[in-house]
């Protein structure tokens, strides 16, 4: 897989734009129409999140979601060719800067929404110290880690040493925790699209232990650029861990509601039943 990804990355970085567009279309048709990768999961997730919609709406939204996912992934593996700093517009980066002035690090929290890797790349180019937390992949992990090391201080694997998370915050770095996937028995049960859902609580726990502010981020693609917004999550001492988890989960949901086609619907979000 490593060799294949390296070759594909090289091809995308040297080929003209019209050929890249053709490649995107081929991958989309392969994944959505031919092998139908996780298509049932996507449609099931959409029907749960939007029960009032029609079958036609689910199908069309799924098709758009596949297109965004393919484009974002192929852009990611061809960094830095498909990165232009002016493409990423930060609307309120002062929220991040003010949080970093506290010298306790910042906990970035969001979901698998939009081209978040492009936002991390943009921040890395601006000189921000970023530490990513990722699940170790069975295939392609070495390649993905090599790309991220171009704009991250380091990448920490989920389930690894907890000291790495604390060290990142003590070094006043931005610690990234995407917190929208099923967390099984370890998660806190909060509402996501009105459904009780096992949700990662690491951001809330670290906030309570380290005093590091939690900042929710979103990156949305419009006609000409990517628009990034930040919002500090209320996590004062009077709030429980569950309440903080619910707060940032609600922000993820609100972002998805506005642009559902840009969300990564491929994960089995409601694998753990809490009915």
Descriptive notes:
This protein is α/β, with parallel strands linked by helices and 275 residues long. The protein has 2 domains: 2-77, no CATH class; 86-262. 45% of the residues lie in helices and 17% in strands. The chain has helices at 2-14, 17-34, 39-49, 55-77, 94-100, 116-125, 141-148, 163-170, 202-210, 241-258, and strands spanning 88-90, 106-110, 130-134, 154-157, 174-178, 188-192, 195-199, 214-221, 226-232. The strands form 2 sheets. The chain has a 7-stranded mixed β-sheet with strand order 1-9-8-2-5-3-4, sandwiched between helices. It is globular and about 50 Å long. The protein starts with a helix and ends in a 17-residue tail after the last helix.
Give the helix/strand layout:
Elements: H1 2-14, H2 17-34, H3 39-49, H4 55-77, E1 88-90, H5 94-100, E2 106-110, H6 116-125, E3 130-134, H7 141-148, E4 154-157, H8 163-170, E5 174-178, E6 188-192, E7 195-199, H9 202-210, E8 214-221, E9 226-232, H10 241-258
Parallel strand pairs: 1-9, 2-5, 2-8, 3-4, 3-5
Antiparallel strand pairs: 6-7, 8-9
- Unreliable sequence segments: none
**Biggest sheet layout:** 7 strands, mixed
* Computed CA radius of gyration, to the nearest angstrom: 19 Å
* Topology order in helix (H) and strand (E) letters: HHHHEHEHEHEHEEEHEEH
* Portion of residues within helices: 40-55%
Overall pLDDT level: 92
User: Beta-strand level of the residues, as a percent range?
Assistant: 15-25%
Structural class: alpha/beta
């Amino acid at each position: 897989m490593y060799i294949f990804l390296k070759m594909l990355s090289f091809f995308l970085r040297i080929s003209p734009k019209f050929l890249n567009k053709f490649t995107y279309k081929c991958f989309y048709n392969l994944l959505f129409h031919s092998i139908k990768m996780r298509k049932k999961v996507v449609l099931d997730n959409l029907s749960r999140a939007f029960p009032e919609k029609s079958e036609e709406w689910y199908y069309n939204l799924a098709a758009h979601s596949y297109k965004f996912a393919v484009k974002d992934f192929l852009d990611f593996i061809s960094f830095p060719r498909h990165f232009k700093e002016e493409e990423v517009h930060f609307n309120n980066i002062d929220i991040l800067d003010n949080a970093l002035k506290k010298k306790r690090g910042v906990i970035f929290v969001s979901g698998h929404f939009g081209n978040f890797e492009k936002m991390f790349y943009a921040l890395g180019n601006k000189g921000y110290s970023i530490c990513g937390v990722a699940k170790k992949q069975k295939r392609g992990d070495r390649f993905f880690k090599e790309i991220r090391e171009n704009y991250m201080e380091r990448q920490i694997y989920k389930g690894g040493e907890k000291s790495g998370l604390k060290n990142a915050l003590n070094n006043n770095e931005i610690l990234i925790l995407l917190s929208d996937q099923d967390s099984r028995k370890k998660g806190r049960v909060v509402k996501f699209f009105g459904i009780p859902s096992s949700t990662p609580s690491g951001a809330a726990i670290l906030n309570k232990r380290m005093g590091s502010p939690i900042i929710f981020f979103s990156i949305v693609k419009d006609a000409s650029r990517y628009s990034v917004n930040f919002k500090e999550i209320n996590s004062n001492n009077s709030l429980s861990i569950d309440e903080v988890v619910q707060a940032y989960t609600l922000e993820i949901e609100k972002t998805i509601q506005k642009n559902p086609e840009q969300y990564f619907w491929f994960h089995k979000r409601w694998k753990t039943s809490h009915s």
